[in-house]
Amino acid sequence: MTSQESSVDVPDVADFFPDVSDDLSKVTWAHAVNSKEDVDTYLGDNSTMMLEADIMPGRLTDADPEGPLIPIMAHPPIVVSDISFEMWITAVIKANQDGKKKGAKLDFKDITVVEDCLKILKGKANDISFPLWLNADILKGPVGDTRDPVDADKFLTLCMEYFPQATLSVGWTTKYTTSDDEDALYTKATVEEMVTTLEEKNVAQPVTFPIRAAFVPRSLDNLDWLVETVPDSTITVWSSESDTVDIQALLALRSLIGHDAVYYDLPEDQKKAFEEARDAQSSSEPSFRFWPSNTSALVTVGVALASALASLYLYE
């Protein structure tokens, strides 16, 4: 490890945003921040903590159409953007240097751009003072999605070589059918394959597992096992706007594995429903105090204790 690498300190999300305390559901997200306009908007939005953006090989809008492909910010099938990866990460670095606290989740859609991006990150390592996640779907997952995952061996090898300080966000390709599809779950075999993949590469950095919200109800026990088995791991629940989501199952997940172990990155309507249910649940939970919280009650307790002691004294 070089002296530059050893000096890099990439903070954990909860440490970087202390207001979330031990409840990662309070972390806020901006999705598909893949244009200059979106970058400017969300870097200036004080309510947004983490910026998620997609990376593809492509060309800038004003580039030579016959020129070489470079890492750009775009979601498949789009291959043209007005912002490159290098421009994007430079803007996020500058925003943090200017006091705007933003984390970054980089979603790699193609293995061919991973090394180029990681080289850029390594060159800017001393300026990355914010949470950094490296995301890819590296295994085939529920309901037989036909898309090819990003090459797991290459992705993990490159991430560990170039930027081992980052959090790995590694998941599965998925396909949504209906809410009552009995195959809509992360099976024990599915999560075991992920554990084996990470163990074979001797992954030692923090890991979060992106989990599709619609598949949570049938997957609770297996997700609990996954987080218990992989050290320093969390879950990031995500969803598509068209998915049917069981909000109570999402609450059950955080109760099962801990409020400090589950992020929720949901579309606006689902996010609102989840937060309302979460807050209602929190307000209904009993709170216990050894001492009363108000002064008059403390006085009453004090008088009662004094009377009891006096009685004991007289009895003796």
Automatic annotation (TrEMBL):
Q: Give residue ranges for domain Menorin-like.
A: 23-270
Question: What GO cellular component is one of the record's annotations?
Answer: extracellular space
Note the Pfam families from the entry. Answer: Menorin_N
Q: Which family does it belong to?
A: Belongs to the menorin family.
The name of this protein is Menorin-like domain-containing protein
